[in-house]
Each structure stands twice: as C-alpha cells, then as structure tokens.
C-alpha cells in the first residue's frame, strides 16, 4: 500500500480501514483526497487479505463536504473535471467487490454525506450530523447525492433534505433509515469493527456476490435481479468455499474460507 498525503490506510484482521485525514479542513474533499480515496479503494478491493473496508474521518468530522476553498475560483472546465472526479471516486468505492462500511464519527455534510451513501451501509456516532447544504451555496449535490439519496431514502425524503439544506442528527438519520446503528462516540470504531469482522469471517466469494445482487435490487427490474441472483448462486455453489462452509456446518466446526 503506498503512502498517502491526505488519507491513512491500515489493515486489521481482514478489515481495511481508510481514514480521511485533513482535520485542519474537517476532512473536506479536494482533488487529491478524491484521487487517494479512489486509489485506496481499488487497492483494498484487489487485496485478497482484505475482506471488508471501513471508511471514517479524523477528528470531529467524517467529511464536512467538498473543499469550497478549492472550488470557489474554478473555471467551468475545472469545475466539470472536479465533479467528474468526485463521481468517479465514489463510484469506485461503491462498486468494489467487498463490502464498504461508513463509520460516521462526526459531520457528514455535502460530499461527506455523498461519500457515506456510496458505502454499503452506515454506522454513526451519536455526534454525527448529516445533510446536503449545497443549495445554500448556489449549487446542489454533485458527487451522486441526487441519485443515491432517493434510492436509499425515497424521493420525498431525499428531496426535502436536498432542497431545504437541513442538517439532521444521528437519531433522525437512524429514524429515516440513513444509518443502521448509532453508538456513543467513544465506542463507534469498536462497534463498527465488530460488524466488519463478523462479515470478514464469512465466505468472501459469497459476500461479494451478495453485494452485487443487493446493489442490483435498486438498479434493475425484479426479473433481471432474480436472473442474476440465480446464476450468481450457481457460480457460488461451484466454489470450494461453499463445500467447506456446508461441510463445516454438518461437522459442527468453524469453516475455514480461502476465497476459492
């Protein structure tokens, strides 16, 4: 894994932990951060030692948004390139074959909320705050927020959050289904790692195929989704991991999966 300037990457018991580390700017997403996030996601996605990825932020923010200081004086061509790089980075995170969990430790606003939505699911600190403040700046969410938020929250809820620029707390995020769990701030990473390690203990090929199938549920018709599910199940059944998992169940022992 290369050395990065604005993110930190570590691997612990099969879990790749990516921390956005620009605390002086509340981890705002600039061009370099987006590039490093994309690169790290691809590297962790290709690393057979990594089964799950967790993304979090340093200090009191997850990611407080895109870097307005960098954006403010961009010309139109530079701005188009910046938006494209943000969409591309989050799409890479969303589509790696391994589950990605957002451990939202603090402010997840604008691009930060979009980053959290690009993950498979979100776990939040009780200090977390979510929202899309962009319309207050004369723009709107451009890193995929207008596309992912309606898929996760429904069009009405997503529209209200985006149009009003309201900031919601962790309890409200839990109520509307934006996050799966809320934990005290000092136990967020420990609880997130419990979830990540539980996922990492299962068959990696099965988890990967399940991720793709779940994603298809929001992107295609029921007929096409069922067809993919059927064929993916057949491919998974042909693996050594499937035989190991079923044998371990019958023999009442813990399965040892090798991703084969």
Q: Whole-Å distance between the termini?
A: 24 Å
**Cα-based radius of gyration, to the nearest Å:** 19 Å
For the record, the CATH architecture of the largest domain stands as: Alpha-Beta Complex
Integer count of domains: 2
* Beta-strand content bin: 15-25%
- Name the strands of the widest sheet in spatial order: 1-2-3-5-7-10
What is the residue-mean pLDDT, rounded to a whole number? 95
Helical run tally? 11
Shape: globular
CATH C-level class of the largest domain is Alpha Beta
What is the structure about, briefly put?
Helix content is 49%, strand content 17%.
What does this structure look like?
It is a single chain. The protein is α/β, with parallel strands linked by helices. It has two domains: 7-200, Alpha-Beta Complex (2-enoyl-CoA Hydratase, Chain A, domain 1), CATH 3.90.226; 204-250, Lyase 2-enoyl-coa Hydratase, Chain  A, domain 2 (Orthogonal Bundle), CATH 1.10.12. 49% of the residues lie in helices and 17% in strands. It contains eleven helices and ten strands. The protein has helices at 31-46, 68-71, 76-95, 111-118, 145-153, 155-164, 170-175, 188-200, 204-217, 222-237, 240-250, and strands at 7-12, 15-20, 52-57, 61-63, 100-104, 107-109, 121-125, 129-131, 167-169, 181-183. α3 (76-95) packs parallel to α4 (111-118), α4 crosses α5 (145-153) and α5 (145-153) crosses α6. The two termini are 24 Å apart.
Features:
6-stranded mixed sheet; 260 residues; alpha/beta; Lyase 2-enoyl-coa Hydratase, Chain  A, domain 2; 2-enoyl-CoA Hydratase, Chain A, domain 1; globular; 2 domains
